Amino acid sequence: MGYRVIYIEKCEYLRLYLDNLKVEVKKDTLLIPISDIQILVIDNYQSNLSVPLINKLTDYNVCTIICGVDHLPKSYILPMNGHFSSSGNLAKQICWNQERKDKIHARIVQMKILNQIEILKINNKDFDVEKKLYEFVDSVEIGDKTNREGLAAKMYFKELFGHDFVRFEEDVVNAGLNYGYAIFRSLITSIIVAKGYIANIGIFHKGKQNMFNLSDDIIEVFRPIVDDYVYNNMMEDIILKQEHREELIQLTNKKISIDGRKQTVANAISFYLDSIFNYLNNQADLNQVLYPLPIIYDL
């Protein structure tokens, strides 16, 4: 996988030229080696993509996101076959043990809440709320039967964004959260496919019309990264600006800590996935699953 995050906002044509992305804007052109690209976001409703380019992007497993007229991600371009062992991995995925899935889901919930606490800490929020969230962490049951994840999220969001905040309303905070989550979800999906698994079959999420159930399981511990950006950069704004979109995309080009080391976000996702797959495939114990922390660092 490449390392560059490319955001296309003004472009007439996107074509393939000798394994390069050729960006055409009026009489100007720009060539970018496709092997260097990790994420390509096309945020121009009038851009034209060539079929050879689309096929080459999937060959290199570039995380390609196409936005709609509202600038929000609408489509992902994913390869049909991501890995030489896809069939074998799919067979394993279908047969993942339910007890193990319930246990890893509970652990994911615990780590998500711990990462939410970390965001509250660095933003000097109410210690009593942090204390209550720690109690939720300690009381998560197998499969999160008592919905500690939902209860923690409600308390966390109101403490971070204000008591009047309601998730999924049409405001700038929700727009920023939705945009950032969509970017992370697409990157996670591309890495899942690259490892020979499919995003449809999840651990906890089981939506019949959701093609990204597994991605939605994996993203949970990464959401607080987006939350922190929105809190510190968008609370005084009215609309989701272009600079916000670009900076939210660039979050995936930062470093975070996992297993005691600073890694790029993509590498951290990869290590996190490997440890979860090893556990679900009976190749590791639960205490060997790695978890990322939500604090970002520049490269």
3D structure, described in words:
The protein is α/β, with parallel strands linked by helices and 299 residues long. It has 2 domains: 74 residues, Ribosomal Protein L15, Chain: K, domain 2; 203 residues, CRISPR-associated endonuclease Cas1, C-terminal domain (Four Helix Bundle (Hemerythrin (Met), subunit A)). Helices cover 45% and strands 16% of the residues. The chain is built from 10 helices and 10 strands. The strands form 3 sheets. The protein has a 4-stranded mixed β-sheet. The chain has a 4-stranded mixed β-sheet with strand order 4-3-2-6. Strands 9-10 form a two-stranded antiparallel sheet. A hairpin with a 2-residue loop joins strand 9 and strand 10. Helix 3 packs parallel to helix 5, helix 3 runs parallel beside helix 8 and helix 6 packs across helix 10.
